[in-house]
Amino acid sequence: MICPKSLTTYKIKNMQKKSKNFKSSPKRYQPKGLSILYEDHDILVVDKMSGLLTVANEKVRENTAYYLLTDYVQKGNHKSRNRIFIVHRLDKDSSGVIVFAKNENAKHYLQEEWEKFKKTYYAVVHGKLPEKEGVITSYLVENSVHKMYSVGDPNKGKLARTGYKVLKESEKYSLLEIDLLTGRKNQIRVHFSEKGCPVAGDKIYGKKEKGIRRLTLHAASLTILHPYTKESMTFETKVPAYFKSLMKKE
């Protein structure tokens, strides 16, 4: 267990913060679809919009967070040695906080310590959960079409644990605060779908419903230890406005 050198916690709420000795790229290079929450010599933390891939796939090569941020740190000069490194990913249709490393040492540290860091999400789910607070536990397996599902046998799946608390209820939906205790693929979406309360806007694990504009899953908060200073840093964002408006619809 690594102990931070300082117990100071930095909270960044929808604004850009920078290290005193660090100069960021000019504003004209800041990418669309990404709000920069924090940047220094070792890490770059952003708030990603829904609909933007984290990394490229076979269909999309350039319109990704990784590509756009690589261009950003190179200040428009593609011969620059500056680059970013993938630490973790968010689904294309999810929004919220992502941290990228700016050197290999930072990448390795963050990935090695990743399971110890705290990740909080907001989600709007269909219906009402009988228990307003709890932990969902199962073992997740991926089938031949890359869809995840739960099994009871720990020898056949990977342990997945999702903590949650109901923040607000309406006739059709519930707004949840979710503590991601393990980081399995599609974990949150699978767990609440199997509870009969799928995430609104989920086209894979949910139900089709007209009028839902996006997947209502948002990575709201991330607490890490800085890879160089070992200080605790918390990056926070607000509940998306669309989530609030959906909760008001009946």
The rough form would be described as globular
Question: How large is the share of residues in beta strands?
Answer: 25-35%
Helical residues, percent = 10-25%
| Helix/strand order, N-terminal first | EEEEHEEHEEEEEHEEH
Question: How many runs of DSSP E, i.e. beta strands?
Answer: 13
Walk me through what this model shows:
It contains four helices and 13 strands. The longest helix has 10 residues. Helix content is 14%, strand content 34%. It starts with 8 loop residues before the first strand and ends with a helix. The chain has 250 residues and is α+β, with helices and mostly antiparallel strands. The radius of gyration is 19 Å and the shape is globular. It has one domain: Pseudouridine synthase. Strands 1, 2, 3, 4, 5, 6, 7, 8, 9, 10, 11, 12 and 13 form a 13-stranded mixed sheet that branches.
Question: What would a concise description of this structure say?
Answer:
By secondary structure, this protein is an alpha+beta fold. The chain is built from 4 helices and 13 strands.
Name some characteristics of this structure.
250 residues, alpha+beta, Pseudouridine synthase, 34% strand
Task: Give the secondary structure arrangement, pairings included.
Elements: E1 9-13, E2 17-18, E3 34-39, E4 43-48, H1 65-73, E5 85-86, E6 95-101, H2 104-113, E7 118-126, E8 133-142, E9 148-151, E10 158-169, E11 173-180, H3 187-194, E12 217-225, E13 232-236, H4 241-248
Parallel strand pairs: 1-13, 2-3, 6-12
Antiparallel strand pairs: 3-4, 4-6, 5-6, 7-11, 7-12, 8-9, 8-10, 10-11, 12-13
